[in-house]
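ok new one. same drill as before - structure tokens go in, u give me an amino acid for every spot. 222 of them this time. try not to just spam alanines like last time pls lmao
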């Protein structure tokens, strides 16, 4: 199996060249097209308990799709919004993922839910974060564009929570509120941010999904 990231319209898609019996795992709804026969099977993400917790406490679906080729074929997987896609070759590492960051994975990767409690609730991630670990390749996406930042030891990065996509699970991440008082929160205050201290591998997106949604909602009300 060979997976390539291809430009498509205003964003990118995953092009997956599959031989008979090859399988890839993807977010439900990511499947767009295929020129051969494939079998789609829905599986609970990270086991029953983890899946239930993720559904109750967060915004992610309980399920993950296993797509298996019944013959040689080319398949396209796409994010829900125009996005840039990046591969993370885990090599035994673990990553924490923000809402909507997960697109697909191949190889030995375990995708489960981990508790974030009130911090992640305020960050727009419900009560849980997605947690991916293993030896395969993880494919993440970021609306509008995706940037990879390497934060060295002794350095730090301040990142708005709504632009957060992924970070290595062993990074030092501190949650902070910036902006003082009700006036700041109502008239341009930023709210919750992450201070990520190195060494860390951080991914963040150009567009904020919640800001996009609020602007569309205001237009619809007109």
């Amino acid at each position: 199996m060979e997976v390539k990231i291809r430009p498509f319209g205003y964003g990118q898609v995953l092009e997956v060249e599959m031989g008979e019996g090859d399988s890839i795992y993807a977010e439900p709804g990511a499947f767009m097209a295929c020129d051969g026969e494939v079998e789609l099977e829905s599986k609970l993400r990270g086991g029953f308990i983890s899946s239930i917790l993720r559904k109750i406490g967060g915004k992610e679906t309980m399920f993950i799709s296993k797509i298996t080729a019944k013959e040689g074929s080319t398949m396209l997987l796409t994010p829900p919004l125009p996005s840039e896609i990046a591969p993370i070759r885990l090599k035994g590492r673990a990553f924490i993922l923000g809402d909507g960051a997960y697109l697909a994975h191949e190889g030995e990767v375990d995708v489960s839910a981990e508790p974030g409690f009130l911090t992640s609730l305020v960050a727009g991630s419900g009560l849980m974060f997605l947690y991916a670990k293993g030896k395969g390749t993880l494919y993440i996406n970021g609306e509008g564009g995706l940037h990879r930042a390497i934060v060295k030891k002794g350095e730090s990065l301040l990142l708005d929570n709504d632009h957060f996509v992924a970070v290595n699970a062993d990074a030092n991440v501190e949650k902070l509120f910036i902006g003082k008082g009700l006036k700041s929160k109502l008239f341009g205050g930023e709210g919750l941010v992450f201070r990520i201290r190195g060494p860390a591998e951080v991914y963040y997106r150009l567009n904020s999904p919640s800001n996009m949604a609020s602007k569309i909602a205001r237009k619809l009300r007109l």
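Confidence is low (pLDDT under 50) at residues 117-127, 182-189. and btw Residues 209-221 form the longest helix (13 residues).
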